Amino acid sequence: MEPRDRRTGDERRGTKRFPVEIDVEWEVGGVRQAGVMNDVSFDGCFILSSGDVLDGDAVRIFVPLADGMKVQFGGKIANHVYEIGFGVRFEPLSAPQRDLLVNLVRSTNR
Asked: Domain extents for the chain?
């Protein structure tokens, strides 16, 4: 079976993606692991990580702030590429979560 190209198919986001490189933690099934968020939109993100996930899994992503706190985003695994990473479709974002994403994109794309 040939690997599926994650850039095609129904789960491909229609909103603009922004390249970022942010060390994050993510959690599926009560197990927390490290990863790197490498693109983000208001609909979701892609996490580089070799963790074992399945499409449809509920996931929590923890984005660090400068003060040592972390902001949590919830979502579902939209697609995954074994040993590379996975795409996440966010649950509806709160206003503070949206503001954080805007600030992350601004600070990493200067």
From this structure: 18-108
